[in-house]
Write a structure and sequence with these properties.
It is built from five helices and nine strands. By secondary structure, it is an alpha+beta fold. A hairpin with a 2-residue loop joins β3 and β4.
């Protein structure tokens, strides 16, 4: 007995199926190409950041430069500041570092030029230690990495200035909470480590510990690009199967 073959699809249905496959294929190829572009951008970003981090420290941007400060141009610049810390205005921001959970300790520094920069002096393990570690008195030079403000708060946690509960280094909000006057830089500086850590971390180092800036950028764009391209090939293969099946149907129902 002859095998039953389904009748051919109408021209309209074939056109609709073809349009769907074509749209899916084009969309997946576009997504893969976009990830390739992102891969190039990420490599360029990593190279730029590496060159900034290891460069000789330069002067921190002053007020005339602040409108042009951006992540693309300035993030992780190696900078130098001279000035005096303002007493009684330290801020603790929750942090998780390679030394464990604790706080970043931020202190405002009034620069020689008269403007104020928040300096992340480093990590402290708990609130008690943070409160007992005042900034050094007198004129001081600070070198570190320029970081952009982190407005709002952390993941699912909003800053609460009235309660002095901070989950991100929000420069404007911290300055407002401490009523800092004058020009406030729109960035903060992660201070470098003043002394090497002891080999045994159970021996408390000199708090706060600077130099714990995490410079790591997730770079999964190649995997994502390959995933989209493989999915595009699968769509193309499925389209070819549909075309072959339709050709078989039309051949079986072809009138003599």
């Amino acid at each position: 007995m002859a095998t039953s073959v389904k009748p051919p699809r109408s021209t309209f249905v074939l056109g609709l199926i073809g349009a769907v496959f074509l749209a899916m294929f084009a969309g997946l190829i576009a997504l893969g190409a976009w990830q390739v572009q992102r891969l190039g951008w990420k490599h360029d970003l990593i190279q730029r950041v590496e060159s900034r981090v290891h460069a000789e420290p330069g002067a921190a941007p002053g007020p005339s430069d602040w409108p042009a400060v951006s992540a693309a141009r300035d993030e992780y610049r190696h900078v130098r500041l001279r000035g005096r810390y303002l007493p009684g205005a330290d801020t603790r921001v929750q942090a998780v570092t390679e030394l464990g959970p604790g706080f970043w300790l931020l202190s405002p520094l009034r620069s020689e030029a008269g403007y104020t920069v928040l300096v992340n002096r480093g990590y402290v393990p708990d609130a008690r230690t943070a409160q007992s570690t005042p900034p050094p008195a007198g004129e001081i030079e600070v070198t570190g990495l320029l970081r952009l403000s982190e407005p709002g708060g952390g993941f699912l946690r909003r800053n609460q200035p009235a309660q002095q509960r901070w989950f991100s280094r929000d420069v404007a909000a911290i300055a407002a909470a401490h009523r800092l006057d004058g020009a406030i830089a729109p960035y903060f500086v992660d201070a470098e480590r003043a002394a090497p850590l002891p080999g045994d971390l159970r021996q408390a180092p000199q708090w706060p510990v600077g130099g714990l800036t995490v410079i790591k950028f997730p770079n999964n764009h190649l995997q994502y690009a390959l995933t989209w391209f493989v999915l595009a090939l699968m769509v193309a293969w499925a389209g070819w199967r549909v075309w072959r099946e339709e050709s078989r149907r039309r051949a079986a129902h072809k009138t003599p």
